[in-house]
Amino acid sequence: MKNFQTFNFNSNIVAGIKSVGYVTPTPIQLQAIPLILEGTDVMGLAQTGTGKTAAFVLPILHRLMQGERGKIRALVIVPTRELAEQVLQDFKTLGSKTSLRSISIYGGVSITQQINRLRSGVEIVVACPGRLLDHMKQRTIELSRVEVLVLDEADHMFDMGFLPDIRKIIKCLSHKRQTLLFSATMPDEIRKLAQEALTKPVTVQLGKTAPASTVKHALYPVKQHLKIPLLLKILQHTDTQSVLIFTRTKYRAKSLGDRLIRAGYKATSFQGNLSQPQRQAALGGFRNGAYQILVATDIAARGIDISQISHVINYDIPDTPEAYVHRIGRTGRAARTGDAFTLVTEDDKAMVRGIENILGSRIERYTLEDFDYSMPALKNTGTHAAPTQKKIVRNKMDWHQKSDTRGKTDLKKDMSTSTMKKQYSFIKTKTTRPLSANIKTAPRPLKHK
Predict the structure, then answer these.
(1) pLDDT single digits (tens) 238-247
(2) Is this structure's pTM higher than 0.85?
(3) Which of 189, 288, 300, 405 qualifies as a FRET site for 43, CA 20 to 30 Å off?
(4) 41 with 200: CB under 8 angstroms?
(5) The domain containing residue 353 runs over which residues?
(6) Which H/E stretch holds residue 180?
């Protein structure tokens, strides 16, 4: 089995690797590091959680140990502030035994402080495109000596509309640079960008996108107007450490976070309308346990790297199967098990099939025995009517109903079975194994304030 000694890193880099406890390189590191050390342009297809950040951080640190100091020689461009901080932290920890200096540059914080740091001299800059362009326009950053350019999570920079900014930045860099591009997916626009920015690149790919085997999946069919009450019921029945909930829009993230707070949960939202101090407080509170639930959008959640997330809940199904894999990759890390729940409506059936196709197996469907699926929507609001007093589940082993051997769902007596079957006809497939025991036995509810 190969270890990091294989790469013959500078001794100070080796000391940094040992200090963080890295022993065996990941597949993406084994493939990418030798190429990057040779100076080859690399196009890497890899998800978050595969070790891709260290795959470019380590060879960059090794390269910068030789040559000029105090000038920007490595530039990493990322889509979000959180990812910028995460990548910067990797440079700092893995390079802790070197004297190399690094800085993150993004909006929402004082540009004056960034200017002062840049003037003091740094070798590595991790930046978001918008603020980097601000510095370039004000001529407060000098990029003429950049030797290595990294475009990290390029597909999400495309999703966020950053490609025109990326092209402006690239035009100001030396043509002799080495360029590394990493992306979870490869849409046509990213391929076009790669053709423009990279020279004779070697593609490094980990194979078919697949989630960790330590994650258990479950679907909860529901009407749109019943999503919030069903979510509250699921949380009531589920024993968790920390929960990351995904929504499609920042407005919904905020409103759902507020609703969970009113329900008594230690929750907060994490979305684009927050100021940088608010974002740091939300993420820090979730990391240290002050908040048990974080509600986020896909874009805002870029760069969230918290190993102890026990549950990922898709309040809104993601836009692509690959995005599903990326979302649920936040749980089941570091040999831990995790659960991924998704609330699905009739409109989501095509995406469900796409997700099951990429997983290579059917996801089991669940309904809750003590939940009233017949609650009507309030007129002109799209919300549900006020529920009746909560029913106590006396047989905890049967708190949810499970598909029978014929693949049909055994619904509550007060619910129209024919209506439910018609609405969710796409759920009729053969029965799979039940979820983990902690779900079947109706474990302790989340702790309230």
Answers:
(1) 888 889 999 9
(2) no
(3) 300
(4) yes
(5) 215-241+308-440
(6) strand 178-183
